[in-house]
Amino acid sequence: MIMDVNLRCRENNLAHRTKEIDKERLIVRRGQPFSITVQCSGTIPPNHHLELVLHIGKKDEVEIKVQKERGVGDKWWFSQQGAQDEMLLTLHSQPDAIIGQYRLTMLMMSPDGRTIEKTDKTRFHLLFNPWCKDDAVYLPDEKLLQEYIMNESGVIYMGSTERIDGISWSYGQFEDYVMDICFEVLNNSKEALKNSEMDINLRSDPVYVSRIITAMVNSNGDRGVLTGRWHEPYSDGVAPTKWTGSVPILQQWSRAGAGPVKYGQCWVFAAVACTVLRCLGIPTRLITNFNSAHDVDGNLSVDILLNEKLERVDSRNKADSSWNFHCWVESWMRRGDLPKGNDGWQVLDPTPQELSDGEFCCGPCPVTAIKEGNLAVKYDAPFIFAEVNADTIYWIIHDNGQRQKIKVDHTAVGRNISTKSVYGNQREDVTLRYKYPEGSMKEREVYEKAGRRYPEPINENTEPGLKLSIKHAKPVFGTDFDVFVEVKNEGGSEAHAQLTIIVTAATYSSLHRGECKRQKINVTVPAHKAHREVLRLHYDDYAHCVSEHHLIKVRAFLDSSGNGDPIMTTANIPLSMPEVLVQVPGKAVEFETAKAFFTFTNPLPVPLVGGVFTVEGAGLLVATEIPVSGDILPGQEVSVGLSFSPIRSGVRTLIVDFESNRLKDVKGVATVVVHRKYRPIIVTCY
512 catalytic, yes or no? Predict the structure, then answer.
């Protein structure tokens, strides 16, 4: 009797803002009705009626009967219109329905309750709905929704507080079968594998789903997506700096049968989480915190231990650290599990750092709770609070085991907290969403609420003496450059001191990669005068030890025997990288061939071997590698071309990465406006 079911995918997907995901499968958002048509053969006998039943789960663990009319409470219901041979069914889901793939069973029932006919091959996907005011992820601003749900590309901020850089990233949440992989990620969680029915029922809650995602993006202790590695070698995988998008990572994980992908670091973990959460319908943005503290012991301070040679002391136990930058994501949702005032942006951090309830996950934690010092709020508020508020304390461990405190910095941690603006690719500073202005009365109140006395302000000018500072230009990787260390004597008499300058290479997460240069001299500074020491760094000084993050750390230590405590200051020097010039000439039209050209010049004084360009862009092309033939000599320019056919119209981003034996993480980007293919309407007259 039921001959055919038309899911009206194009009409429904357009109305539910899912046509970018798929035009051939039905993908709808909860809390918003959708309509399907049912073709019937013959006449439906009198008093017969249609019943609908939904099943969700690999083994149909959860069954939901769809009511014939709108009922009371959180029930699915449907209405029926149309003639005997064709019916229009409109299905209504509740705003807190379970997300996932549903199987719809249609039953033609007789008046006495017998099943006359049954069809159960209809399937569709249901996602969160941030456009629905009753959904927990409702975000009442279309501009924000276009950025935090619909935008498939973004900018991730990196570098240091002294020089903030941005790299382009392809989130690709609407690329082919990415949605299927996102549900595959959920299906491989410990919770799903342990108790599938309970897990599915909990998938109505964005708090639960987002927390599962933070655990599953990293592979620590589960079947998660990415394995983290914070130092070379990466020979058995892909260096974290080479990735330019989330889609190849998710595809590789899926093809490997939930086998972990090597390797990720914080921005890669955060970007993949952003892709999955946006795809599922949870508004999400990527956040970068500069000078981010990793407080292991929970005392709200990062203790940096140095030996008498001013080298970092490796502790057998896990040590505190301060990262140049650290990335996480924020997702927008109501927190019905928390007291009033905790709705809105929630911190979620998929980078495996510390255990949370026995798992390597972090959040969701309300940003408002961090700002107000409400550390009893779940999840992981004390750890996140320390990331943006901890003190940095430097100690010297003398040979006899005695500790000497040489520097305390109350304001270094939690600087320039950044995200991409909804108005373009410029940086938006969100620091004041996480903390009150440094030194303000309100900040002191927050410290006390967090269970820690706010430090008394230090007036460094109360006792004139020696001051120490480091200055430098903005050096380019591959060049020689100078570092200037200034000793200023604000006292009334001549000062004698020993100045030690140490230059080391490090990763962004403060892992020591080797000493580049060390200089120790005796200085004499007349009263009210300054002494400037110039340290010249040649390419050969740092090339052998610099990490893939191209970061130089300078530490200056001044010891004036008999004239008070020693003084120390530090500076991070990020080395600027060259760029790949990306050009896409002409007009790009969907499904028609376009050309792109990539140009790069070797800035190093040595040849580059094994050069390769990697290109990708959501809606443009899948990740593609283009090897460079032969060595690239110093100063030599290379240019390669690529033909591709855009598959989706709109404003797209083409992202290029270049790497070789001596130079990696060289990026290039171009915006490509893809026009719709013109399809003429043919009218035939008779």
Answer: no
**Is 279 a residue of the active site?**
no
Range 488-494 average pLDDT: 89
What's the mean pLDDT in 507-528?
A: 89
Catalytic residue among 16, 92, 294, 326: 326
In the chain, domain spans: 2-127, 142-449, 466-574, 581-675
Q: pTM score, two decimals?
A: 0.93
CATH for the stretch 581-675? 2.60.40.10
Domain 466-574 homologous superfamily, CATH: Immunoglobulins (2.60.40.10)
- In the chain, the percentage of residues whose pLDDT exceeds 90 is 72
What is the pLDDT confidence band of residue 460, given thresholds at 50, 70 and 90?
Answer: very low
Query: Angle between the 178-187 and 266-280 helix axes, to the nearest 10 degrees?
Result: 100
Q: Residue 275 carries which side chain, given as an amino acid letter?
A: T
* Residue-level pLDDT at 311: 84
Q: Bin 110: left if φ > 0, else alpha if -120 < ψ < 50, else beta.
A: beta
pLDDT in tens, 530-575: 999 999 999 999 998 888 889 999 999 998 866 667 899 999 999 9
Residue type at 540 in one-letter notation: D
CATH classification code of 142-449: 3.90.260.10
Strands 321-333 and 284-294: antiparallel
Report how far residue 477's alpha carbon sits from residue 519's, in angstroms, rounded to the nearest whole number. Answer: 22
Q: By the 8 A CB rule, do 552 and 572 touch?
A: yes
| Marked catalytic residue, from 9, 266, 361, 516 | 266
Given the residues 320, 349, 391, 657, select the one marked as catalytic: 349
